[in-house]
Design brief:
single chain; 172 residues; Rossmann fold; two-stranded antiparallel sheet; 3 helices; 8 strands; binds guanosine-5'-monophosphate
Length: 172
């Protein structure tokens, strides 16, 4: 086990408090969760916010789907439902690995002229960075290992574990 459910719980509280403070004046914060990995983090984070907020989801291609292509290529599978122009947008990601996904999403959403655009990620693997992206609200920095639990999967398994665990190579 890498991060216990209790540690995740405490950190999500702290992130929600920091986001509440930063957006104290917002009319409506738009949380854009990146499917599927962020669904549990998003649910916990959103329920702890006091500022007015609404929830959107976006889906992009995962590793397996892009193996044969340019490894940096990200494909949009499902877009947000409503326009984000002029709004305060916060992207909610499970994990930032190479940075390709978050960098793609930042470009995609910035082109829609939100009022502000920031990022929140539960986990970051700095050793794997290929594209530098600013993470405004970060839960934990972790080493270069494959993690599962709290929304994160391996081949769709382990997503609903309450804690975050390293999946050793022999179990993949
Ligand atoms: P990036 O584009 O930053 O390389 O990758 C981001 C995506 O890769 C994440 O949203 C997640 O879907 C997947 N990913 C990267 N590392 C891990 C990991 O350790 N465990 C799981 N389950 N997914 C990961």
């Amino acid at each position: 086990m890498l991060i216990s459910a209790a540690d995740i719980d405490r950190r999500v509280d702290e992130l929600a408090a920091a986001i509440d403070e930063a957006y104290a004046e917002t009319e409506m914060l738009v949380l854009v969760g990146v499917l599927k990995g962020s669904f549990i983090f998003m649910a916990d984070l959103a329920r702890r916010l006091s500022v007015p907020h609404r929830v959107e989801f976006i889906a992009v291609s995962s590793y397996g789907a892009i193996e044969s292509e340019d490894p940096g290529a990200v494909r949009l599978l499902m877009d947000v439902r409503h326009d984000v122009a002029g709004q305060d947008v916060l992207i909610v990601e499970d994990i930032v690995d190479t940075g390709h996904t978050l960098s793609y999403l930042l470009r995609l959403l910035a082109a829609r002229t939100p009022r502000t655009l920031r990022t929140c990620a539960l986990l970051h693997k700095p050793d794997r960075t290929v594209t530098d992206v600013a993470i405004d609200y970060l839960g934990f920095t972790i080493p270069d290992v494959w993690v599962v639990g709290y929304g994160l999967d391996f081949a769709e398994r382990h997503r609903t574990r309450p804690d975050i665990c390293e999946l050793p190579p022999e179990l993949r």
